[in-house]
Design brief:
By secondary structure, the protein is α/β, with parallel strands linked by helices. It has two domains: about 150 residues, Rossmann fold, CATH 3.40.50; about 160 residues, Alpha-Beta Complex (L-2-Hydroxyisocaproate Dehydrogenase, Chain A, domain 2), CATH 3.90.110. The protein is built from ten helices and 13 strands. A nine-stranded mixed sheet has the order 3-2-1-4-5-6-11-12-13, sandwiched between helices. Strands 7-10 form a two-stranded antiparallel sheet. It has a two-stranded antiparallel ribbon with strand order 8-9. Bound molecules: NADPH dihydro-nicotinamide-adenine-dinucleotide phosphate (NDP). NADPH dihydro-nicotinamide-adenine-dinucleotide phosphate binds next to helix 1.
Length: about 325
């Protein structure tokens, strides 16, 4: 399995690569080769990470290639984790952020189109992840859009952890939690279908609206406030979970959350990369259909999807799609 990681010398990359090389992503039987894409100024740091990977003597780890050339990095890739992106800096408008990232994700989409393996699966982690995935997919016309996804698994895992903390139920007993919409402050963590030990349970709506939703949506900022830098190990762990479930399948009776290209389900405009409840049997992600959406959920989903539509309009206007 050839796995390409962009932004490999960054802090998420530093947490992610060791998990992949240890076999945490695809299990103990699948050897992995790594392709690390970095900016020219970060190639030395990427070399250092590769030296540490060597020093772990992971039995599953094959060769490691380090490059600043996207065509080389995506050559033969079965899995591509697009982590490196341009962070928002002080005073930067959203339009500037989208343009700066368009300059990264449009060429990477083209490089995936031209070089990756036929079965490539792409996970975008770098923010604004949903719209970066849309840009990459639009620039890879020969790769089915179902092969592109953006990460809301960390939000999903945060929701599981919060519900576990509030109820005392272990995360392993919780199922059918959903993240809808954009991986941003407008995301909607939804417990309307959640189960504990397979059973529906009484949910305090005040707790959901005033505590649970803001805690999940604001968790990234809380971690920056506490740690001084953004979450990295938990983001890397969520990326491992996302790819493992996509390639090996989701557990029977449960689903997970991933941002994928909408087919118009649940009133989400077709073509937007939005988070949905999804399952996988090892092929493409499938949206869980037929869930009831109450008025509160409708309003929250629509608000987040409206933000995605605005982002799409902005990158369309920039000629990135
Ligand atoms: P991180 O590794 O901490 O983060 C990388 C990206 O992941 C950021 O866009 C970050 O968004 C995003 N992200 C998504 N979800 C989360 C989450 N839950 N918690 C934290 N981050 C999340 O960034 P670093 O600055 O340490 O490293 C980035 C690396 O990427 C650098 O080494 C840089 O050189 C490289 N880079 C490579 C490119 C390439 O390969 N062509 C292009 C651009 C950069 P947010 O900023 O919003 O937190």
């Amino acid at each position: 399995m050839i796995i390409t990681v962009t932004g490999a010398a960054g802090q998420i990359g530093y947490a992610l690569l060791f998990r992949i090389a240890s076999g945490a992503m695809f299990g103990p039987d699948i050897p992995v080769s790594l392709r690390l894409l970095e900016l020219p100024q970060a190639l030395d740091a990427a070399e250092g990470v590769a030296m540490e990977l060597d020093d772990c003597a992971f039995p599953l780890l094959g060769d490691i290639e380090i490059t600043d050339d996207a065509d080389v990095a995506f050559e033969g890739a079965n899995v591509a984790l697009l982590v490196g992106s341009r962070p928002r800096t002080a005073g930067m408008e959203r339009g500037d952020l989208l343009a700066a990232n368009g300059a990264i994700f449009a060429p990477q989409g083209r490089a995936i189109n031209d070089n990756a393996a036929d079965d490539v699966r792409v996970l975008v982690v770098g923010n604004p992840a949903n719209t970066n995935a849309l840009i990459a997919s639009a620039n890879a016309p020969d790769v089915p859009s179902a092969r592109f996804s953006a990460m809301t698994r960390l939000d999903h895992n945060r929701a599981l952890a919060q519900l576990s903390g509030a109820t005392g139920a272990p995360v392993s007993a919780i199922s059918r939690v959903t993240i809808w919409g954009n991986h941003s402050a407008t995301q909607y963590p939804d417990l309307s279908n959640a189960r504990i030990e397979g059973e529906r349970f009484e949910i305090d709506r005040t707790w959901v609206e005033q505590d649970f939703i803001p805690t999940v949506a604001g968790r990234g900022a809380a971690i920056i406030a506490a740690r001084g830098v953004s979450s990295a190990a938990s983001a890397a762990s969520a990326a491992v979970d996302h790819l493992r479930d996509w390639v090996l399948g989701t557990p029977v009776g449960d689903w997970t959350s991933a941002a994928i290209v909408s087919d118009g389900s649940y009133g989400v405009a077709a073509g937007l990369v939005s988070s949905f409840p999804v399952t996988s049997d090892g092929g493409d992600w499938q949206i869980v259909e037929g869930l009831e959406i109450d008025e509160f959920s409708r309003g929250r989903i629509d608000a987040s999807v409206a933000e995605l539509a605005e982002e799409r309009a902005a990158v369309e206007a920039l000629g990135l799609l």
